[in-house]
């Protein structure tokens, strides 16, 4: 399951769910609002820009946005919403691809850093973010907290969603810190549709160390984009890392 095969034309065509899921106003609104604040009037770079779920409304807020994206089909979907002049996109790997210019904000949302399946690649992602930022620039990551407390000894999977027409479960390889998310969608027939995506899960403390290796310091961490406190029971976090004002 390599990334280019996962984010293919079929996935790109079905990715957007306007008004619901991660496109729901109560999800997207606080995300865009917070990122606009953190940009502080400067330009933003989105790693894994996808179909423009965040980039398009952020650009509409007046923040200049550029994207890096590995999947050409996802970029083609983005192009139905915004042209190259509005949201320029570099097609490439977010660990190495270079976008022109210097930015005040780089952001990586909706758990996407976990799509990089090695610690080394995840560290390289931080370093690539640092290369694109000016002094005092910020790197923002939205990421889920590994739910290993739900995984009893000897059990390799957890169900994290069960609702009409859908079941979501994760299978864990705790030795290598890997997880595969399985998405089962079904209707009234005997047939079901399965989609899978691999991830390398990251503990918040490990993420902070990756940041320090790239020259960042943790500025803030909250449980969501609205600024709720991050606690031991939080299922996700929004972490803001910042470079020193002078380097």
Automatic annotation (TrEMBL):
Residues 1-20 are annotated as: Disordered. The keyword Methyltransferase applies. One of its GO terms (biological process) is methylation. Residues 45-137 form the Methyltransferase domain. Pfam families: Methyltransf_25 (PF13649). One of its GO terms (molecular function) is methyltransferase activity. This is Class I SAM-dependent methyltransferase. It comes from Streptomyces galbus.
């Amino acid at each position: 399951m390599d990334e280019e095969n996962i984010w293919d034309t079929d996935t790109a065509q079905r990715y957007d769910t306007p008004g619901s899921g991660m496109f729901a106003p109560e999800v997207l609104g606080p995300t865009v609002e917070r990122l606009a604040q953190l940009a502080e009037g400067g330009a933003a770079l989105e790693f894994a820009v996808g179909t423009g779920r965040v980039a398009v409304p952020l650009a509409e807020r007046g923040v200049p946005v550029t994207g890096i994206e590995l999947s050409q089909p996802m970029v083609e979907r983005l192009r139905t919403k915004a042209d190259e002049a509005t949201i320029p996109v570099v097609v490439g790997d977010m660990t190495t691809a270079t976008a022109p210019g210097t930015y005040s904000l780089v952001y990586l949302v909706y758990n996407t850093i976990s799509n990089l399946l090695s610690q080394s690649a995840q560290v390289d992602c931080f370093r690539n973010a640092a290369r694109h930022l000016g002094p005092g620039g910020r790197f923002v990551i939205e990421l889920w907290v590994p739910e290993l407390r739900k995984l009893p000894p000897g059990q390799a999977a957890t169900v994290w969603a069960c609702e009409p027409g859908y079941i979501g479960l994760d299978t864990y390889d705790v030795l290598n810190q890997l997880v595969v998310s399985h998405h089962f969608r079904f209707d009234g027939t005997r047939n079901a549709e399965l989609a899978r995506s691999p991830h390398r899960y990251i503990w918040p403390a490990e993420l902070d160390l990756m940041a320090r290796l790239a020259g960042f310091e943790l500025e803030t961490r909250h449980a969501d984009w609205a600024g709720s406190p991050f606690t031991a029971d939080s299922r996700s976090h929004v972490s803001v890392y910042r470079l020193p004002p002078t380097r």
